[in-house]
Amino acid sequence: MIASDVRLVDHHCHGLLFGALPAAEFRLHATESDWLSINGIETLDSPFGLGIRSRCAPLLGLPRHASIADYLERRAELGAPEVNRRLMAATGTDILILDTGFTASDVVSPSLMTGELGIGSAEIVRLERIAEEVAPDTTASGFLLDFREALQRASAGAVGFKSVMAYRTGFDIPESPFTAAEVEAAAAEWLAGSDPEAGYRLDHRVLLAHIVWEAVALAKPIQFHVGFGDSDVHLHLSDPTRLTGFFRATRASGASMMLLHCYPFIREAGSLAHIFPHVFLDVGLVSHYMGPSAGSAVRESLEIAPFHKVLYSSDAYGLAEHYLVSATSWRSAISRIAEEWLGDDWLTADEAERIVELVASGNARRVYGLENRGVNDSVLEVRGLGGRR
């Protein structure tokens, strides 16, 4: 396969779990659903389950296609640290660009991921989390400046930002920033309506748009969750074409817009990446959840977007199995596509290798400026915070 040995930069992923994981918890981490299947049906009787049984089981010393029950028994016998090392080594990943904002479990930090696995790491900071951490000590009149200062501090150690507004209100960003008076009024509404004991969750449409515009001013990549996700996501409101006016307004800002996952809006995301020079896409997350069908997502991502606008990611969270199935699915899919194009004489072998390398790592290295900074210096201590995005 053309992509069998190419090294990866995983431009959007999360920390791993290194502690013991009961079978039920493993199954919950292995689905975007918040619930296990009903009536004793195996939750991992799924495309991703096929990936675990066919791609991961042999690396744990099991026969290919071993049952999920046998797999979980062997996983517990080896222990999570050993499983993580085996599966992550097999992904062929050089750098993990880790979103540290979602910590529903005790996933480890970028620095610990690097220390445990020997893989370089960099940090993406979540805009909503910064605002939520500012909230307890701010006021309506002070929010704008307090958030701006916190964002600038976070920016110093991060290669980019992420917004999960798709989980909160859907995409609703005006083509120009809100005024200071509008931000203050929105902050007053949000703070007054929040329960400090329960914690702050930013779900105010004005503030969600405001913090994205604040990030634009810092001219770093901004990641947006798009499409498929857990039960909180507003799927019909997470169509990336709703951001068209915002993309038009930010074209010359210096900030790159990274559309993550994109299923079922892959073609919409590809169209936006074709039109706007600062818009990029990936098909992470579904690269493991689609299992044997992941090739259709990879193919759609390459239909109309320029090759320098498509990136590899896994969106793995907690489980090394996410990482491994994503990597193997992507390698198989893009190799098959490249070989088909070669067979039809659309390109040369050298061009096929160049395109594969761009998607695998070159585009991420360029967009996030990884060659210009150390990638192992991100630090964020392990946290056990609430599970809502």
Describe the overall structure.
The protein has 389 residues and is of the alpha/beta class. Helices cover 43% and strands 10% of the residues. The chain contains 15 helices and 7 strands. A 7-stranded parallel sheet has the order 1-2-3-4-5-6-7. Helix 11 links the parallel strand 6 and strand 7. The longest helix has 24 residues. The chain is globular. The C terminus is likely disordered.
Helix and strand element order:
EHHHHEHEHHEHHEHEHEHHHH
For the largest beta-sheet, the strand count, sense and barrel status come to: 7 strands, parallel
Shape: globular
Radius of gyration: 21 Å
Oligomer: single chain
Q: How far apart are the first and last residues' alpha carbons, in Å?
A: 37 Å
Q: Could you estimate the helical fraction of the residues in percent?
A: 40-55%
Question: Taking strands numbered 1, 2, ... along the chain, how are they ordered across the largest sheet?
Answer: 1-2-3-4-5-6-7
What structural class do helix, strand and pairing data support?
alpha/beta
Proportion in β-strands? 5-15%
Q: How many strands appear in the DSSP assignment? A: 7
**Stretches where pLDDT falls below 50 for ≥5 residues?**
373-388
- Average of the residue pLDDT scores: 93
Number of helices: 15
In short:
The protein is 43% helix and 10% strand. It has helices spanning 23-29, 47-56, 68-78, 80-91, 110-117, 127-134, 143-156, 180-192, 205-216, 244-249, 266-275, 286-289, 294-301, 320-343, 349-367, and strands at 8-13, 93-99, 120-126, 160-163, 222-226, 257-261, 279-281. The protein has a 7-stranded parallel sheet with strand order 1-2-3-4-5-6-7.
